[in-house]
Write a structure and sequence with these properties.
seven-stranded mixed sheet, Rossmann fold, 15 strands, alpha/beta, 324 residues, single chain, 9 helices, 2 domains
């Protein structure tokens, strides 16, 4: 029997309740995984609250984890007992200490990536890779705006874009976070609680605006991000931590021939090949020192509700992980 956090209905953090669930033996194409660490994402919060109604109830939320293979099913090649792996799961189920997993979802972990980093940053690392290399391929000399630059994905975008030779403008909520992202290569930092983001962006860029704005905040920042774009600039809205974006008249894009995209990681990593390519690029960036993530904020597995609460109240920055 495994211990899992099961939700029977949408609601606050209290709907996540520890229950015993039967795991069983892996079937064809599956592995059994003893999990050591589980990542926590805003996507999990959207599922728990009911904003995303994508998890059949009762169900176990969670998109990413790391652990050790304890059994392999018929037809599985490339994995054996004792292998360290991490994964992102399109069908949830990560909030547990043991589970069955389609082997095609698992990625072997290199020795230089520890379980806590892998579990808390697979979604973030793959997201950053996809955003910078596929959604909008960033080149040297371009100028970026990263909303919530001190957030989990924001930190990776700042570091990776800086390495690529882009000028990075980041928004943060405090001087502490401003100091953090400056140390990661953020060229210009805007304290959004005290400064007008659009005006500051225009001043920094001498009135032109940015080539691309990466926005995971949503409701509170979307239209500001749009106004900060240069002619032919792109708005990449990849999250909504502040709530759903108000409907947008498409004619707004005609002001400067801008584009808006709402990418979902699963679409860009739909095949093992595309997923592994992004994962390996992320692992290589860690190994080469391009990415130097802040250690994740750690919670005990049974404190997942508190982790959700702290994230919603913006008391955390960077990645969040449950230790199993």
């Amino acid at each position: 029997m495994a211990r899992a956090m099961v939700m029977h209905q949408a609601g606050g953090p209290e709907v996540l309740r520890a229950e015993s669930v039967n795991v069983g033996e892996p079937g064809p194409g599956q592995i059994r995984l003893r999990q050591t660490a589980v990542g926590v994402n805003f996507h999990d919060i959207y599922v728990r609250s009911g904003l995303y109604q994508t998890l059949p109830l009762p169900g176990v939320p969670g998109l990413e984890a790391a652990g050790v293979v304890t059994a392999v099913g018929e037809g599985v090649s490339g994995f054996k007992d004792g292998d360290r792996v991490a994964y992102t799961s399109g069908n949830y189920g990560a909030y547990t200490d043991e589970r069955l997993l389609d082997a095609s979802r698992a990625v072997p972990l290199p020795d230089h990536v520890d379980d806590l980093t892998a579990a808390s940053m697979m979604v973030r690392g793959l997201t950053a890779c996809v955003l910078l290399q596929r959604v909008f391929p960033v080149r040297a000399g371009q100028t970026l705006l990263v909303q919530a630059a001190a957030g989990g994905v924001g930190q990776l975008l700042v570091q990776w874009a800086h390495h690529l030779g882009a000028t990075v403008i980041g928004t943060v909520g405090s001087e502490e976070k401003a100091e953090l992202v400056r140390g990661m290569g953020c060229d210009h930092v805007i304290l959004y609680r005290h400064e007008d983001v659009v005006q500051k962006v225009k001043a920094i860029t001498e009135g032109r605006g940015v080539d691309v704005a990466y926005d995971s905040v949503g409701k509170d920042t979307f239209y500001g991000s749009l106004d900060a774009l240069a002619p032919l600039g792109h708005l990449v809205n990849f999250g909504q931590s502040s709530g759903s974006v108000e409907p947008m008249p498409v004619s707004l894009l005609a002001r400067a021939s801008n584009t808006v995209v709402r990418p979902m990681l699963g679409h860009y990593t739909a095949t093992p090949e595309s997923r592994d390519q992004a994962a390996n690029a992320f692992f290589d960036a860690l190994k080469d020192g391009i990415l130097k993530p802040v250690p994740p904020v750690r919670y005990a597995f049974e404190d997942v509700g508190q982790a959700h609460t702290d994230m919603e109240n913006r008391k955390t920055h960077g990645a969040v992980v449950l230790e199993v």
